[in-house]
């Protein structure tokens, strides 16, 4: 825990430093959300087909979802989403002529029903 999913336009494959992002993200999330780095899990999902606005090819997106066990305050979630968004922008190289739309969502996992197992 936390579980992090990163959806990104496949056009960002060569300009998005995913490993660097994850390595910087895990301690950031652990610090702000009072979690353990060892519990952070991030998966990256390239999106081959997206449509933004009028469907032009000059736009790309990255959406980051951070799922945490419930109980964090709205202020903590806002601080985390702001920090994650800034970190993501640091790990995407500028591409002339390409607008990158970035967003972050912090969501709760219900403690009463969440289960996990490691072997």
TrEMBL record:
Domain of life: Bacteria
Entry-linked InterPro entries: 5-COMe_2-OHmuconate_Isoase (IPR004220), Tautomerase/MIF_sf (IPR014347)
Pfam families, sorted: CHMI (PF02962)
Name of the molecule in the record: 5-carboxymethyl-2-hydroxymuconate Delta-isomerase
Organism: Streptomyces fildesensis
